[in-house]
Amino acid sequence: MDTPARLIPLLEQFDWARERLTHRLTGPTADSGSGTEVEVAALTDAEYLWEPVPDCWSVRRHSAGPGPGATALTGSGDWGRDTAASPHPSPPPFTTIAWRLSHLSELLALRADHTTGSHGMTRGDYRVAGDAAGAVADFEASADAWRSALVGADDTALDTVGHSTYPYGSDPEDPFVDIVWWVNQELLHHGAEIALLRDLHRARGACA
Q1: How far apart are CA 10 and CA 133, in angstroms?
Q2: Which candidate among 15, 80, 85, 190 keeps its CA 20 to 30 Å from the CA of 68?
Q3: Per residue in 58-70, pLDDT tens?
Q4: Residue 192 covered by a domain
Q5: Is residue 69 part of a domain?
Q6: Cα angle 81-86-91, degrees, rounded to a multiple of 5
Q7: Element of type H or E holding 46
Q8: Nearest CA among 182, 194, 80, 67 for reference residue 128
Q9: Cα 179 to Cα 6: distance, rounded to the nearest angstrom
Q10: Tens digit of each residue's pLDDT (9 = 90 or more) over 83-105
Q11: How many CB atoms lie within 10 A of CB 60?
């Protein structure tokens, strides 16, 4: 099946943003933004869980319970991600790399499932990683799953309202092409946030 022409730039944008984030997480080099490669160390567990300000939301062991301001930990396995029932805290809590990467990987995995999978996966089913290597591997697997769902979409699917039945967004009410665009901006903005947190972690203690 030929890829619809209007999907091609969205796929290229997704691939570019994914590659940039993966290189920022794993190294050994990453694009500085100007085409120059700079050295990047692989994400460590300490950095993954780093809380730069008080009362961060993060991922935690279920046995420890939710963090400040959170009312639950979502996810399966030993670890979960801080969350709260609606209405959410205002202003929103500051979140760690662990929280942001888990959130990003979860939305990719669940949207893939609700597009070409079982259409039944919930946030409670998603396994949250408590370590950096596991989280990076989960991101890669989730990104692969979402991209596979995209390349199977034809023009009819792109125009279909509810082609993705993901229950935690506007997917059931929007044409699929709008959801593809939305997921790209999620990857772009959370990837940028994670990259900035890596820069701040590297420079911590440098300012008096």
Answers
A1: 28
A2: 190
A3: 999 999 999 999 9
A4: yes
A5: no
A6: 80
A7: helix 45-48
A8: 80
A9: 13
A10: 998 888 889 999 999 999 999 99
A11: 22
